[in-house]
């Protein structure tokens, strides 16, 4: 809206900003205005929507290089937003069920830990020096992919490796907007180019 920092600084910087969210003790960054380093960034179109969020078109999700067996309409019908103010990514229940099943299959050799609050898929990884995490990727309209690293896939809600939980949950009701939260954005440069309707 007109009160946002982006709108208020548009005359000086244009309507473009970027951030890189940190993990743990790292430092992150926030920048306003165009930069030549953005030339190598993959963009996907921002969708035209009257609601005050940044909507994108997710066309699929894959785990371990295999697409989840869900129709892209699951993502399109409810819409998907990128939101740095939401911690855990929320998906339509069908998409989440398939994602969870694929992750559980990939993590089958590791001992299960109790769930934590809304996080229902947790593992005790405290005895493992090296963990083979599955890759998870979001596929966007235009061919852009967001490939998640282990820090984007699991969180340690109690602070240690004895309870590492999948950082995704199902939406509470069908039709709710899917949200790509800040956990999945960490260590990625996210560029919002509002004037060119892309992210």
TrEMBL record:
Gene3D superfamilies, per the entry: Acid Proteases (2.40.70.10)
Residues in coiled coil: none
Xref: Pfam families: TAXi_C (PF14541)
Biological process terms in GO annotation: proteolysis
Signal peptide: none
Domain Peptidase A1, chain residue ranges per copy: 1-199
GO terms assigned for molecular function: aspartic-type endopeptidase activity
PANTHER family xrefs: ASPARTYL PROTEASE FAMILY PROTEIN 2, ASPARTYL PROTEASES
Family under the similarity heading: Belongs to the peptidase A1 family.
The protein's name: Peptidase A1 domain-containing protein
